[in-house]
Design a protein that fits this description.
By secondary structure, the chain is an alpha+beta fold. It folds into 3 domains: about 160 residues, Beta-Lactamase (2-Layer Sandwich), CATH 3.30.450.20; about 110 residues, Orthogonal Bundle (Helix Hairpins); about 150 residues, Heat Shock Protein 90. Helix 7 runs parallel beside helix 12.
């Protein structure tokens, strides 16, 4: 079972395929080499025999023509040690005059069919079984010509068994080379398949860990090929998943806090309303003046609930993009002055002095009139709430590069450094008790931030404890 599992892996499949390919290649190569070498060896041997036959024929042609067979016999026996193969000398009648081997064949007359072609002046080549030797042989027959007449023939031959042993040695050599190649192939294919499968197995392990919530591990990139690119993409995916999950967890935590904050903000006025309604129902008040005061408190808390619900709806719609911004070219000076004019009763109640410093060359901006006015009212209203009675609020606006900056500066208590990033969160209040007394919902700065973001601008705060705060936002210049 373990062997089957290892074969069923990518590395096992790759190794098997590599081995099969190499084996098939070596098999075809061995057969091809054997066939080619056999043909080459036979052809080379035949050529040698023909050359040798021609030389012997040139030396014997006169003596054979003159019938001097003793001289022929003496030459052949004296020279046989220099011959490549065995030699027969045949006269014009097909009679074997002399041989270098098998002396018993001397005097034997060859079949006419065997000598017909050679006595027609042709060189004959043959491979196969020989009646005279009882085994396969390779032989050539070269005519001996003299005075334009065939006077005999030289037969040069060699048993194929001797040639076959050489070919067997070659086949054995190819077999040994194939075995060595197979061993090397197994080693290389194992190493190569492991190099392919190792990062894939690592990805599998890490993906299982990711499924159980562990996103810390990454695949080590060992190459720049397709597997390396896959590992790089896997790591990128893991990073993005980790970021997405972290973001979702953060949003989930924010949602839980939001629900808790909304519940708290709703519970306080509802509890107050419930208490005073119950007191009015039960007649628990001392005078008509107390009764009227109870009604005023209930009305105030209802208005506060309405503001809270309206702010929540505004913030939700802005975040979801459900409120379409009516963007147009605007004169920011007029919007600033109009916003301050709307807040003048509140400014006079606290006997505050407001200073407006608008640059003479203040350019037009591209914005939604109502939403920018909402931003200004929120920020100026906050400045009014936190500025001590009789102090000064400054509203400053100037151009900076391709943006217009608007600054609302108060002389209030300032914001602690650790709170500067938190004030933009929903329901966050630096001083919860004082904010509740002023009727704030804790959503104003969140709404401001979302509106400015939809205008492709930025909003931030600079503050120093005991000296006040400056809220700044930017808008794009219309002629950008």
């Amino acid at each position: 079972m373990k062997l089957l599992r290892s074969i069923d892996t990518i590395s096992g499949k790759l190794m098997i395929r590599f081995t099969i390919i190499i084996l098939v290649t070596l098999f075809i190569l061995a057969i091809s080499l054997s066939y080619l070498f056999q043909n080459y060896y036979y052809g080379s041997t035949e050529k040698k025999f023909i050359d040798q036959g021609n030389k012997i024929a040139a030396l014997l042609q006169r003596s054979l023509y003159e019938g001097n067979y003793d001289e022929t016999l003496f030459f052949l026996r004296d020279s046989q040690r220099f011959f490549e193969g065995n030699v027969w000398i045949v006269d014009s009648k097909g009679l074997i005059l002399v041989t270098t081997q098998q002396k018993e064949l001397q005097g034997v007359r060859l079949n006419k069919n065997e000598v017909k072609q050679v006595f027609q002046g042709k060189i004959v080549k043959k491979r196969g079984f020989s009646y005279y030797f009882g085994e396969p042989v390779l032989f050539v027959a070269v005519p001996i010509n003299f005075a334009n007449k065939v006077v005999g023939a030289v037969f040069v031959y060699s048993p194929l068994a001797g040639i076959g042993s050489t070919l067997n040695d070659l086949r054995r050599l190819v077999l040994y080379a194939a075995l060595i190649a197979i061993i090397l192939t197994l080693i290389l294919s194992f190493t190569l398949s492991k190099s392919f499968s190792r990062p894939l197995k690592r990805m599998q392990k890490i993906s299982l860990n990711m499924a159980h919530g562990d996103f810390d591990e990454r695949v080590v990139i060992e190459s720049e090929d397709e597997v390396g690119q896959l590992a790089q993409s896997f790591n990128y995916l893991a990073d993005k998943l980790q970021e997405t999950i972290a973001s979702l967890q953060e949003k989930e935590e924010q949602q839980r806090r939001f629900v808790a904050d909304v519940s708290h903000e709703l519970r306080t006025p509802l509890t107050s309303i419930q208490g005073f309604v119950k007191a009015l129902r039960d007649g628990v008040y001392e005078s008509e003046q107390d009764k009227e005061e109870y009604y005023q408190i209930i009305l105030s808390e209802v208005k506060r609930l309405i503001r809270l619900v309206n702010d929540l709806l505004d913030l939700s719609q802005i975040e979801l993009g459900q409120i379409k911004m009516e963007m147009e070219i605007l004169d920011l000076k007029g919007i600033i002055k109009n916003s301050i004019r709307n807040l003048m009763p509140k400014i006079k109640d606290k006997e505050l002095r407001i200073v407006i410093e608008l640059a003479d060359d203040l350019p037009l901006v591209f914005a939604d009139r109502d939403r920018i006015e909402q931003v200004l009212i929120n920020l100026i209203s906050n400045a009014i709430d936190f500025t001590p009675q009789g102090e000064t609020i400054k509203v400053i606006s100037k151009r900076e590069d391709d943006e217009v900056l608007v600054m609302i500066k108060d002389t209030g208590p300032g914001i602690p450094v650790e709170e500067l990033n938190n004030i933009w969160n929903r329901f966050h209040k630096v001083d919860k008790a004082r904010t509740r007394d002023r009727g704030g919902t804790g959503l104003g700065l969140s709404i401001v931030r979302e509106i400015i973001r939809h205008h492709q601008g930025e909003v931030w705060v600079e503050s120093e404890l005991g000296k006040g705060s400056t809220f700044i936002f930017s808008l794009l210049v219309a002629d950008k």
